[in-house]
Amino acid sequence: MRFVAALVLLPLALGACGNTGLRDIRSSAKGPDEFMIQPAKSLQQPDSYTTLPVPTPGQANLTDRNAIAEGVLAFGGTPQSNAEGIPASDVALVQQASRMGVTNNIRQELAETDAAFRKRKARFTQIKIVPTDRYDQAYKRQILDAPREAARWRRAGARTPSAPPAE
């Protein structure tokens, strides 16, 4: 009987030591979420107080960050390129990517579909003895095994130059 109890308790004890990292999509902290706080730019004294823009209540501040412009800069673009539309050098790429059509509200549609999928998968997962990875639990049928997929493509004769070499 002790042996059976040890066989049951040992995996439970070891499973509790697992590191879920960013895959644990539930917050267990009682304090504020530090990822919800957006740092502002540092305040700067203007050259002249008479040339300041008129305040616009409810609108962006001069010290507010612009995530889209920062993303464009991080990927090597210019802040003006976001407002100008598609640069001439990228027209062919955009046409190729959108050749099958474009869904205008794709983000909203995917968010709604994902929320419904996770809700449907979470019906019978509320009662657990040990902590589980909810992300893996919801998406385990959609996980891609990269080495196996690379091997499948190599067997089919496709070139896989960015993949690690076959051993």
H/I helix tally: 7
Instruction: Name the assembly state.
Output: single chain
Average the pLDDT over all residues and give the rounded result.
77
Give a short account of the largest sheet. none
**Helix vs. strand class:** mainly alpha
Q: Identify low-pLDDT runs.
A: none
The radius of gyration over CA amounts to: 25 Å
| Percent of sequence in beta strands | under 5%
- The global form is extended
Order of helices and strands: HHHHHHH
| Helix content bin | 40-55%
Distance between the termini: 46 Å
Count every beta strand, where a strand is a DSSP E run of 2 or more residues: 0
List keywords for this structure.
7 helices; mainly alpha; 167 residues
Describe what this molecule looks like in 3D.
The structure is a single chain. This protein is 40% helix and 0% strand. The longest helix has 16 residues, at 106-121. The radius of gyration is 25 Å and the shape is extended. With 167 residues, the chain is mostly helical. The model has no long low-confidence stretch (mean pLDDT 77). The chain is built from seven helices and no strands.
Describe the structure concisely.
This protein is mostly helical. It contains seven helices and no strands.
Task: Note the topology.
Elements: H1 2-15, H2 67-74, H3 79-84, H4 91-97, H5 106-121, H6 134-139, H7 146-155
